[in-house]
Amino acid sequence: MGFVGLQEALRRELRRRIAAGELTGMELARKTGFTQAHISNFINRKRGLKLRALDRMLKALGMTLYDLLDPRDLAGHAAVPPAASEEFVDVPVVESAATSSPVIVREQVREMLKFRRLFLDRLRATVPAGRKGWTRFVALQIETAEAEAMWPGAGGRVTLLVDRHSISLAPYRPGRRNIYVVKRDSGLLVRYAESIDGSLVLQPRDPSFPALVVPAASLADVIIGRVAQVSLKTA
Questions:
Q1: Where are the alpha helices (DSSP H) in the chain?
Q2: Whether residues 61 and 173 fall in one domain
Q3: Percentage of the chain modeled with pLDDT above 70
Q4: Among 44, 68, 46, which Cα is nearest to 57's?
């Protein structure tokens, strides 16, 4: 809901209270410091309210912005809650565009996948300062064309568990290179990554795919997260 929608919702609430005898224009004028003409013009859509005036009106009514929102809108923008199960955690499957959102909300979720809590708790990560409030784990499904660069012959859809708290290029396990989900242009790539001369060099497992170089002033600006688990589903 935009600012205009918020004002319209406030008008409806004012009309409701006045019609129910819960409020008068004179009483509202006294509480807000506005003139009765100002309030009447607002209710009758002859004028709008600036943000500060809207705040004064809400305080006089004992309301907050949340009271003006449709419950369905609130539900759609609510953060995805953790699973109640002690054994499993629900991880949201999201579209590529949502992987950069700090907090994953309901409207961004395609479905939920269950992962064992014990497995997720064992995953180590040094959380970057800018990502402490982020939803840590997301799942991402990539189709065959992109999956072939890292899993030749996969022949189907690949589902990745992505740890967005883990963006360090240090090997997670000795002798094994990390796989990352990385932003490039308007899309995502899944590649090995290393930093060379201030740029991120992205390398595929399949040598028939080219290596790519992405300017990276900060890893957090480019890396979505480390791939913590891969699930292959054959076609």
A1: 3-19, 25-32, 36-43, 51-61, 71-76, 117-122, 144-147, 219-222
A2: no
A3: 92
A4: 68
Classify each residue of 133-142 as buried b or exposed e, where b means 16 or more C-beta atoms within 10 Å of its C-beta: ebbbbbbbbb
Do residues 219 and 169 lie in contact, with contact meaning Cβ atoms separated by under 8 Å?
yes
User: Which residue range is the domain that position 132 belongs to?
Assistant: 76-234
Distance in Å from the first CA to the final CA of the chain: 41
Q: Are residues 100 and 115 in the same domain?
A: yes
Q: Domain ends where: 40, 69, 98?
A: 69
Residue showing tokens 């995805």? 80
For the chain, the residue count is 235
Q: How many domains does the chain have?
A: 2
Which tens digit of pLDDT belongs to each residue from 2-46?
778 888 889 988 998 899 888 898 999 999 999 999 999 999 999
This model's pTM is above 0.70: no
Residue 145 and residue 158: Cα distance in Å, rounded?
10
* Distant-in-sequence, close-in-space partners of 168: CB < 8 Å, separation ≥ 6: 125, 126, 219
In the DSSP assignment, the letter for residue 96 is G
Q: What is the dihedral of CA 212, 217, 218, 220, to 10 degrees?
A: -60
